[in-house]
Design goal:
The protein is of the alpha+beta class and 437 residues long. The protein is 66% helix and 8% strand. Helix 8 runs antiparallel to helix 9 (387-422). The chain starts with 5 loop residues before the first helix and ends in a 15-residue tail after the last helix. Residues 1-37 have low confidence and may be disordered.
Length: 437
């Protein structure tokens, strides 16, 4: 079946409710004794667990919160300053000798228009970090689905190799019986023993693949590396693909990178507007209380603004810089759109090819290889063929089954990667489209 749409939508839900932080980013990774898994884990459950507990996602969520706090920083007023003056000092080293002492409170009232624009730019950065988190969630979802399939492939290879070992044992038993009866050469018996030893050695080698695949999945799930992991799903042929044109349109409207580029361009336009408002000054105020010896206390008020007298510095500096940044982002956005289109095209082609390969292997190659082996085994049992023919037929059949296993994993991985490239669940295939079952 196709990697469930829940995989991608779980990313969006995790973005909306980022409270599932059961593991702190940067926490030491446990390598203690294997922990018992709570139960068989489906592909969708694995993705949900990775979105909730993956340390990289926890770090990304904190970056989103950092950007949110940046909005308050961008719109905050500067802290006021408390100042004092001592006039007409009789002794510089004795402040008490002054005949006039002033105490003042200085503060700046920022221009409301510039404060508003600063807030818009900061909100754009916050939205951009949300989209970065969404992109990372989608990548993690695809990686988790692929790691899950890698574990399924390794375990299915284990089953195939167990079958190969049992077949080799039967061939060895039959060959030794024929050798004792004088109907088989000693070389046939030796070759049968070599084939049995080879099957055993391949089983040993596959243990590394299973251990590595399980460790990779545990890492994405935020579990201890050597934790036990039971799988509930099996390798199946994914659903038929939708039309490429529909997938490309969906990608252009859904990919977080493109949405982020749009947010950056809007923020750049706001930054340009902000830079152009250099002529809107902030208001600097100071409130004074004066104490003069022999006179009643009095108050005074100072106010001032900055005058952009050297206006060309602003035009040739910050304003020009902001304009060029706008153009840079516009060009980068066009290039990013082309990259996304290429990514979707490549992923779609890989998924379509994988579907064709797995269907051909399942319907053509594997049945023919099995039939050839059974015919060779029956003939060999009756003394009508040599062990070389039987061993060759066995190797061909096992190679075909191994190719089918790899193709099933590749087809599922390719469809998960296609959903990652689109940035959204794949639409349903059109009515009448080929559907592999």
């Amino acid at each position: 079946m196709r990697v469930s749409a829940i995989i991608i939508w779980s990313s969006a839900l995790a973005l909306a409710a980022p409270s599932g932080r059961s593991q702190v980013a940067g926490a030491p990774l446990s390598v203690a004794s294997p922990e018992a898994a709570p139960g068989p884990l489906s592909r969708t459950q694995a993705v949900d667990e990775a979105l909730a507990h993956n340390p990289a996602l926890a770090a990304a969520r904190e970056q989103v919160e950092e950007a949110k706090a940046g909005i308050s920083v961008a719109t905050a007023w500067a802290d006021p300053s408390l100042v004092t003056e001592a006039d007409q000092l009789k002794n510089f080293l004795s402040p008490r000798s002054a005949s006039e002492r002033d105490v003042g409170l200085q503060f700046t009232v920022p221009n409301p228009a510039r404060t508003r624009l600063n807030g818009k730019v900061a909100r754009g950065s916050w939205r951009q970090m949300q989209l970065v988190l969404l992109q990372l969630q989608q990548q993690t979802a695809a990686q988790t689905a692929q790691a899950y399939d890698a574990l399924l492939v390794a375990r299915r290879h284990q089953d195939d190799l167990n079958q190969s070992q049992e077949m080799a044992r039967q061939i060895l038993k039959t060959t030794e019986a024929r050798y004792r009866a004088g109907t088989a050469a000693r070389l046939d018996a030796l070759k049968a023993k070599v084939d049995y030893s080879k099957a055993t050695n391949l089983l040993i080698a596959n243990e590394h693949a299973r251990t590595t695949a399980q460790a990779a999945l545990n890492r994405l799930l935020g579990r201890p590396i050597n934790a036990a992991c039971k799988t509930a799903d099996s390798l199946e042929i994914p659903d038929a693909l939708p039309d490429l044109a529909a997938v490309q349109v969906l990608a252009l409207n859904s990919r977080p990178e493109l949405l982020s580029a749009s947010v950056q361009q809007q923020a750049a336009r706001d930054s340009t507007t902000l830079a152009k408002q250099y002529w809107l000054p902030d208001l600097n105020l100071t409130l004074w209380r004066s104490h003069i010896v022999g006179a009643p206390d009095s108050y005074k008020f100072d106010g001032g603004i900055s005058v952009p007298l050297f206006f060309w510095q602003h035009e040739q500096g910050a304003v020009a810089q902001a304009r060029h940044h706008e153009r840079e982002l516009s060009a980068s956005g066009a290039d990013l759109s082309a990259q996304v289109a290429l990514d979707v095209q490549t992923a779609y082609s890989a998924a379509a090819t994988a579907l064709r390969q797995v269907a051909y292997l399942r319907d053509e190659l594997v049945p023919q290889a099995k039939a050839a082996y059974h015919a060779a085994f029956e003939s060999y049992t009756l003394g009508g063929s040599s062990s070389l023919e039987l061993l060759d037929a066995k190797a061909t059949m096992l190679d075909a089954e191994s190719q089918l296993t790899d193709a099933l994993g590749a087809a599922s991985d390719a469809q998960a990667d296609l959903e990652r490239a689109v940035g959204a669940p794949l639409p349903s295939a059109p009515t009448g489209a080929p559907h592999e079952k």
